[in-house]
Amino acid sequence: MEQPLGQKIIEQPLFDPTFLNIEYIFNKILEFINPILDYFSRAETWNMIGLISMALSLIFIIIIIFSLVRMREIQLYEKHEINHEINEALARDKEDDRNQNPRWHYILTLVESPNDSDWRVSIMEADSMLEELLKEKGMAGNTLGELLEEARSNGYASIQDAWEAHIIRNKIAHQGSEYPVSQVEARRVIKMYQNFFEEIRAI
């Protein structure tokens, strides 16, 4: 319907505050809050909260003490294990020192000497040690050559090294200083003796 000309249009507000009951709203809020406030205002409530707090504190204290005790036990265990491993390593070192053949150690000292005469002596000593060890192993024979043949028949894998080293020893014994021996050669010969000694677990 069209408005008459000259008539003023009155706009209606979207929200009319006269219909808002503020007191009613506050009463509803108080009805919701009052039971909560009443609950927390009781002595029994605070007694319950205190008991729960004490129980939780006691539980946390027990957990902390248990954790500290376990940490200490772990530290002591690790310290004990470390000391045990160190003692075992020291014991192994001492056992290795006891098991090291002093005669073989002397031979190694000779071959590392700066004197060429000591190199020859190291080979002679290693050959003499070879003969004694073969006799200890029960090899039969009057000479080292016969002992080596007996050892060959027993299937030692490095017996050829022992044979070659013994041949060089014989050349040194028969030719003396006329047979040239360098330190490199002496080390090579001693290594051949060593291969056989290690196979029979003499060193």
Taking Cα atoms only, what radius of gyration do you get, to the nearest Å? 50 Å
Number of helices: 7
Oligomer status: single chain
What would you call the structural class?
mainly alpha
Overall form:
rod-shaped
Q: What fraction, in percent, of the residue positions are helical?
A: over 70%
H/E element order = HHHHHHH
What is the count of β-strands?
A: 0
State the end-to-end CA separation: 126 Å
Mean model confidence by pLDDT? 83
Which sheet architecture does the biggest sheet show? none
Strand content: under 5%
Provide the low-confidence segments as ranges. Answer: none
Q: How is this structure best described in words?
A:
It contains seven helices and no strands. With 203 residues, the protein is an all-alpha fold. Helix 4 (116-136) packs across helix 6, helix 4 runs parallel beside helix 7 (183-199) and helix 6 crosses helix 7 (183-199). The radius of gyration is 50 Å and the shape is rod-shaped. The model has no long low-confidence stretch (mean pLDDT 83).
Keywords:
203 residues; mainly alpha; single chain; 74% helix; 0% strand
Put the structure in a nutshell:
This protein has 203 residues and is an all-alpha fold.
Secondary structure layout:
Elements: H1 22-40, H2 43-99, H3 102-111, H4 116-136, H5 144-153, H6 159-175, H7 183-199
